[in-house]
Amino acid sequence: MAEEKKPVRKKIKATGEMQRIMADYFYEMDDAAKTGKKKIAWCTSVGPAELLRAMGLLVHFPENHGAMLGATRMSTDYIPVANAAGYSPDICSYLTADVGAYMKGVTPLSKAYKGIESVPKPDVLVYNTNQCRDVQDWFMWYAKEFNVPCIGIHTHRGVGDVKESHITSVAKQMEALVEPLEEISGTKFDMDALRHTVSLSRECSDLWKEVLDTASAVPSPLTFFDGTIHMGPAVVLRGTQQPVDYYKLLLAELQERIKNKDGAVEDERFRLYWDGMPVWGRLSNHSKLFSELRTNVLASTYCNSWIFTAFDADDPFNSMAKAYTELFIVRSDEAKEKYIKNMMDFFKVDGIIYHDAKTCPNNSNCRYGMPQRLEKVTGLPSLTINGDLNDMRLVSDEQTKTNVEAFIEQLEEKK
Ligand code: SF4
Questions:
Q1: pLDDT of the residue at 10
Q2: A Gene Ontology MF term for this entry (predicted)?
């Protein structure tokens, strides 16, 4: 008897082009680190990248490196190294994986890009605590290690409505970074250069939003798992031309899929929203698990976190302060719930998955009754998956599979 064909997630053709621009990005930085041609800043993932680029700095994102350690399933081996150095197994596993790998002289960049032997040595580290406090501790560790300055922005957290006072306070802190950055980069600050990077970031953000919004089509041409890969250029190259060109290409492909009613998951039957961090070491397992149940996890808080609609080249500092403060992760539960409800409506989902990531309370929104409150408002069911972004010792594949299958059965009964 012929075996039943299982639905799969379809490949995106533009992936090759994305890999090319990511390779160029890493090689340019590696070259700069080896030759000293350009100065390098390390920046948090939602830090002031536009300002750093305007000062002529190349920008490395340790969280992106942490995610690479997770996706290549190297992270779990190196987390204990950082634990032994006093960084608890309960804190951010991006931090512990990244520091542990550095202490052992290992990087996934070497496997992916021939000739790259290490992360690029920073000339300065720049953080924004808008996402969590862990990033500051993380960057301080490297500042000591490399004996370079670590400067940053302290953002209010648990913000309800973003007020003028929040924006002014953050904008002032951003402006205060200019002087030390001029000294480190050897470049005089130029407002027009900042306007240019902010405008490119805005263009990137608008296109990335259009890409993610295509998932509202039925069937959806995109999955959350595609999003976690294709967000790379928006994270590490915003403020440059490359992601703008790339997202035009990707968008055209997705629009073509919509026109042909070509869903990313064959025979899409259920549509889900994902809240929280991806489980980097299980991206393909999770993608397969849901596809085989003809379920598309198609939208997420996570991928949408690199949409910055406030960026305005006419008012760079204030608009950057607004964009980096009105982010989901910075906000109060009330604001977050309103956001998720809108997303669930817009993407026409049948339910929501919360990932309770053990080492990232900042991106785990299910711990204080949010699933229950949202269920009341939306009437849609939820499932919480316990796991982690990078520490695979905290992930139970069996339990995840059983829980997801039971959840889909519950959705079947409701159909
Ligand atoms: S938000 Fe979470 S995953 Fe990101 S750096 Fe902070 S603790 Fe780590």
A1: 87
A2: metal ion binding
Range of the domain at 99: 15-414
Strands of 16-87 (E only): list them.
Answer: 40-43, 58-60
Q: Return the half-sphere exposure (C-beta side, CA atoms, 13 A cut-off) of residue 399.
A: 8
Q: How many domains does the chain have?
A: 1
297-351 pLDDT tens trace: 999 999 999 999 999 999 999 999 999 999 999 999 999 999 999 999 999 999 9
pLDDT in tens, 356-412: 999 999 999 999 999 999 999 999 999 999 999 999 999 999 999 999 999 999 999
> Quick check: CB of 388 below 6 Å from ligand 1?
no
Q: Is the CB of 360 under 6 A from ligand 1?
A: yes
What distance in angstroms lies between residue 94's CA and the mean position of ligand 1's atoms?
7
Q: Is residue 5 part of a domain?
A: no
The answer to whether the CB of 132 is under 6 A from ligand 1 is yes
| Residue 42 near residue 125 (C-beta atoms within 8 A) | yes
Phi, psi for 134 (deg, rounded to 5): -55, -35
Closest CA to 299 of 278, 276, 273, 280: 273
State the distance from the centre of ligand 1 to the C-alpha of 325, rounded, in angstroms. 16
Query: 323 CB contacts (<8 Å, ≥6 apart)?
Result: 308, 309, 310, 311
362 lines ligand 1 (CB under 6 A): yes
